[in-house]
Amino acid sequence: MVAISPRRIAASTVASRPKAPSRPGGKRGPPGDELLSRQRGLYALPLGAFTDARNALAKELKAKGQTKEAKATQQLKRPVVTAWAVNQLAHRAPEKVEALLAAARTLEGAHRKALSGLGPQALKEANRAFQQTLDALMTEAHGLLATEGRAVTSELFRQAEETLRAAALGTEEDRATLAQGMLTQPLQQAGLGAFSPLTLMGPSAPATPERRVQERPSNRRAARPPVPPAPPPPPARGGVVLKGPWSPRKEEPRAPAPPAPPSKRQRREEQAAEHQRKRTEELHQRRREAEQQAKQTQARLERTAALQQRRRELKQQAERAERAQRGATLEVARAQAYLKSAEVKTLRMRQAFEQAQAAERERAEAVELARTQAQAAEQALEQARRELQEVEESLREA
User: Fold this and answer.
1) Alpha-carbon span 75 to 39, nearest angstrom
2) CA distances in angstroms from 232 to 37, 90, 239, 241, listed in the order given
3) What are the phi and psi torsion angles at 308 (to 5°)?
4) pTM
5) Statement: residue 355 has pLDDT above 60
6) How many whole angstroms from its chain centre is CA 373?
7) Separation between Cα atoms, residue 162 and residue 159, nearest integer Å
8) Residues contacting 239, CB < 8 A, separation 6+
9) Burial class, 183, CB count within 10 angstroms (exposed 0-12 / middle 13-18 / buried 19+)
10) What is the pLDDT of residues 189-225, one digit of tens each?
């Protein structure tokens, strides 16, 4: 099996990476590290705020006279959703990203050993540890996207996982870009792919020792064919077979020759074939495990998509219930206002009724007083009339 260098099978990048800003000269402006930190902070912002913040930073640098830095900042590209999600992991969970990069370096070392025929178990364990670290980081990405309110589709999830795998198992530039969190496009694997679980060590076609012996040219001379026995002499006249020293002898049966011990080359070839067979079986087992992990991941993605759909439905139901509750609360407030207005009107009417009753009582008292006064006046008038009659009678008598 021919060993393939990790450099040759590293993941190729289809993204345009932001170039590191040049350190400004003199004492004007911030140092290069500070400018890189500010540019890196642009990729930690929400996706919708990237363009405005980039333009503001470029305008600030241009106002300070840093033309090159302002131009480089203005040329920074806005990341797509997948690259933005991976960048958020680098900014919000840097320890998990470093754990992924460390697992990738361990896997690379185990891969080199396995290509030389050493440590297949270490390669298997390193591959499993790398996959577990990647799964943990994808769980973090799922929670992060859900927190930001973005729909987690299976395609977005797949691109994010492929970007993390390609960056971790790619070149040092890919790893540095991932660690800085400044991706603008998702990364893809090209060629054989970088240390994929299914293509860590591509099995070559095993050749049996017999086939190798046949294909290998031999330096030995070809063995001479056996000499056939001489034919018996023809019979003499009279049907008598002449006996003489020239007559063929009866051959005695020979014992079978013991098998020749295998040579060192044959033993090496048999050992190599056995090692190749075990390695092929191990690779097939690893392939089956990877396929099983892929199926489990697909099932988890489908369950996650179903849960996300159910979550959206419940969120819509909650919003409808909240709108209905707000409408009911408004109706209750209106009814309470109407009730309060009716109570005020009733109180006013009651006060008016009481005032009317008081006025009626006052009028009744006035009528009664007037009636009493009228009776008193009538009595006085009657008394005056009697007195007048008495005076008139006195005058007539006089």
Assistant:
1) 11
2) 105, 96, 14, 10
3) -65, -40
4) 0.43
5) yes
6) 104
7) 5
8) none
9) buried
10) 654 344 444 344 333 333 333 344 343 444 444 445 5
